[in-house]
Design a protein that fits this description.
With 152 residues, this protein is mostly helical. The chain contains four helices and no strands. The protein has one domain. Helix 1 packs across helix 2 and helix 3 runs antiparallel to helix 4. The structure holds protoporphyrin IX containing FE.
């Protein structure tokens, strides 16, 4: 590619990226809460799949992977762990408390799911799953409340 064509390509990219950034920029603030609710909706969609066990198990495990990726994404974007030493609003404290609880909930839920598919009674998995879904919804709600409290 000659210099003129390169210049044109760079100018073209700059012209397209500008408007894209202007749209994405303000949206970025809402990106995490949207993704957070999105993963909750993903889990809800996985519940009616329960009769097709391999699909249900794969779907839920993928949800777990997405939640882990979201956590890494937030850490890389905002150094969330380093902020833990600083002042936190009450909703953020509640949010972090729920997130910490969920770290324990996940492996237990996936394990009991495996046990049910191997023939164990459903009761424990069902109880854990319902409490998990309530906690996961509260996680998404408190994320929004913490963000709103920080903005005021
Ligand atoms: C975040 C993870 C998970 C959640 C939230 C979840 C949620 C649920 C819920 C709500 C039910 C329905 C209980 C009922 O009958 O009312 C269920 C059933 C079941 N789940 Fe899970 N689950 C998860 C992961 C898994 C995994 C990883 C496996 C397997 C490895 C699994 C295997 C099963 C089985 C075998 C049933 C019973 C299906 C039947 O009724 O025949 N689950 N799960």
């Amino acid at each position: 590619m000659n210099i003129g064509a390169q210049g044109l390509a760079i100018a073209g990219a700059a012209l397209t990226l500008g408007p894209v950034r202007r749209v994405i920029g303000p949206m970025k603030e809402y990106l995490f809460p949207i993704l957070n609710f999105g993963v909750f909706v993903w889990f809800c969609i996985g519940v009616p799949m329960k009769r097709r066990v391999p699909l249900h198990a794969g779907w839920m495990t993928l949800g777990f992977a997405m939640d882990t990726a979201l956590l890494l994404f937030i850490e890389l974007d905002r150094s969330a762990i380093a902020q833990l030493g600083g002042r936190m609003n009450t909703w953020l404290q509640v949010h972090i408390g729920i997130a910490t609880l969920l770290i324990v909930w996940y492996p237990v839920l996936l394990f009991t799911g495996g046990m049910v598919s191997a023939g164990a009674p459903l009761k424990r998995h069902k109880q854990l799953a319902i409490s998990f879904l309530v906690l996961r919804l509260l996680l998404a709600v408190t994320a929004v409340l913490a963000m709103a409290a920080k903005a005021t």
